[in-house]
């Protein structure tokens, strides 16, 4: 369990100066996901969730995008910015959930479901997005589902997000894919119930990548940025936060009078945590590893992402 208050992460002055110098020389922007380490947040130009990062990548005028996150996110930036150099700070940072859906398997499933549109969570490989009708994030999944004309929809890869969205759209029939996020999926129900019992004054906030048995017990379900905003707006003082621990840094920084508790089972995405300050320096110096989506995949994958971005939020 984490207690209130936080000391600011230490960014060695030498590294901060080196990153700032290289950013100027390269004409670069550093984008980071909330789940990255706090020190990465401190040097990034923009910190956000998947949707925010996609929007930021689409509008940046920088020549080079240094992406602190996981591979599929850098791919999305590459889809949206084909003329820019997109560098993933740590080449080893992948997403186990994204790896749970392969293009060949999706192509086979589509053959079994003729006429059923495919809605794919952005946490997926570009080659899977290319086989999909439209994408979604956890922030806009319900709005995207409602925007589709068809009643029956196949949703990949996260079965938990699909189950959550199905509950909110009873008029749809959401067929699921057996993927999940290990960081959110492993939460233990008994532990959450016990945490609630010990903190009856706390508001429980959860990400829809958690299992339904957990979501049934919480007060608010939202995307990463939705959780951050909800805690900031709430007049409650104490919160239980059921998503990756990276969100605690902005939440504590921006809400000094509030208390944020976490479960004993650590909610840490080991891949997001692979990104380090030294990776950013190296990426800016070498402009590698570049992530570039092949043109034949880029066209259809971009279409699915752009259709998502055009759907108005609920
Ligand atoms: S938190 Fe889960 S979905 Fe997000 S990158 Fe990590 S493994 Fe993938």
Give a description of the structure:
The protein has 15 helices and twelve strands. With 314 residues, it is an alpha/beta fold. It has three domains: 98 residues, NadA-like (Rossmann fold, 3-Layer(aba) Sandwich), CATH 3.40.50.10800; 101 residues, NadA-like (Rossmann fold, 3-Layer(aba) Sandwich); 79 residues, Rossmann fold (3-Layer(aba) Sandwich). Strand 3, helix 4 and strand 4 form a beta-alpha-beta unit. The chain starts with 12 loop residues before the first helix and ends in a 5-residue tail after the last helix. The N terminus is likely disordered. Bound molecules: iron/sulfur cluster.
Q: What is the subunit arrangement here? A: single chain
Low-confidence stretches: 1-5
Strand order of the biggest β-sheet: 2-1-3-4
Helix content: 40-55%
Q: Examine the secondary-structure arrangement and name the CATH architecture of the largest domain.
A: 3-Layer(aba) Sandwich
Largest sheet: 4 strands, parallel
Bound molecules: iron/sulfur cluster
CATH class of the largest domain: Alpha Beta
Number of helices: 15
DSSP summary, beta strand count = 12
Series of secondary-structure elements, N-terminal to C-terminal: HEHEHEHEHEHEHEHEHHEHEHEHEHH
The Rg value, from CA coordinates, equals 19 Å
